[in-house]
Write a structure and sequence with these properties.
TIM Barrel; binds zinc ion
Length: 270
């Protein structure tokens, strides 16, 4: 929705799946991309209005979160990921201009959902992975813009949950952007190493592997993996258990229940 608000066009070729890109913004038009107020965009504003309704109807029972992608990921969907990565090398000034516009829109999105009273904002930051960029490229084209969004949220008292499900997550760099919580899939990181560096600074959302374990394995195997994660973290506060990323549609309900029940079973702390 954010990419569409900045000029990308989409289409819906499948009935039950996300829209696909119809046409990206051409690199030669990148300097025409302007910051957007989510409330004034016909599509993006739908999610804001939905959050308001959810907050009113079920906000006392469950956490209602805003959700946005990092500026780098939005930009990659405005011009296309390959084009953006090439642009970082061939036309860094134009890319920086696009990232700046998208960052301003993202900061505004944080303000808008904060006014609704959401309980936090989930930020999808999975372009920050070694398979896409190295730490210096992250700093130049990703991290410095992400920091502006996170800083703005923090200044408004809004919690940030930074998600990174890349295969080689630049999680130390992400930790440095100062989110309230960092969300990684356990299959991509060493839990003891992450726990040692994250504890006491940032909450950790331990992502139980979703593409194989949750999708194809048994409830007992899911419970064992949750127990492993809880044991590896120990008694300290600051741990949340979740799936590694969005659940595939066909994950058995029994495995989703096992994920929840095993936290209740093994997650009690003195
Ligand atoms: Zn993900």
């Amino acid at each position: 929705m954010a990419a569409k608000a900045h000029g990308m066009q989409w289409k819906f070729p499948e009935r039950d799946f996300y829209p696909r890109p119809e046409k990206y913004v051409d690199m030669s038009d990148i300097d025409k991309v302007q910051p957007v107020d989510p409330l004034e965009d016909p599509t993006w504003s739908v999610s804001v209005r939905a959050a308001r309704i959810m907050k009113e109807k079920v906000g006392d029972e469950v956490a209602v979160l805003g959700c946005i992608e990092s500026p780098n990921m939005i930009a990659s969907e405005v011009v296309g990921m390959e084009t953006l990565l090439m642009g970082c090398l061939t036309d860094p000034d134009a890319v920086s201009k696009l990232l700046d516009a998208v960052t301003q829109s993202s900061i505004r999105y944080g303000e808008v959902v904060n006014e609704i009273g959401v309980d936090g904002i989930f930020i999808e930051g999975s372009t920050a992975g070694g398979e896409m960029m190295d730490p210096s490229m992250f700093q130049q084209f990703d991290g410095q813009y992400l920091v502006r969004v996170i800083d703005s949220c923090r200044a408004n008292g809004l919690s940030t949950l930074l998600h990174n499900c890349s295969e080689k997550p630049l999680w130390r760099e992400h930790l440095g952007t100062g989110p309230t919580a960092i969300h990684l899939q356990l299959s991509s990181v060493g839990m003891p190493e992450v726990a040692a560096e994250v504890k006491g600074k940032t909450c950790f959302i331990a992502g139980i592997e979703h593409r194989e374990l949750l999708l194809n394995h048994t409830p007992d195997e899911v419970k064992a993996e949750v127990k492993n994660a809880l044991d590896a973290w120990g008694q300290d506060p600051g741990l949340i258990i979740g799936p590694g990323c969005e659940l595939p549609y066909k994950v058995p309900v029994e495995n989703i229940k096992a994920l929840k029940e095993s936290v209740e079973l093994y997650g009690k702390r003195q």
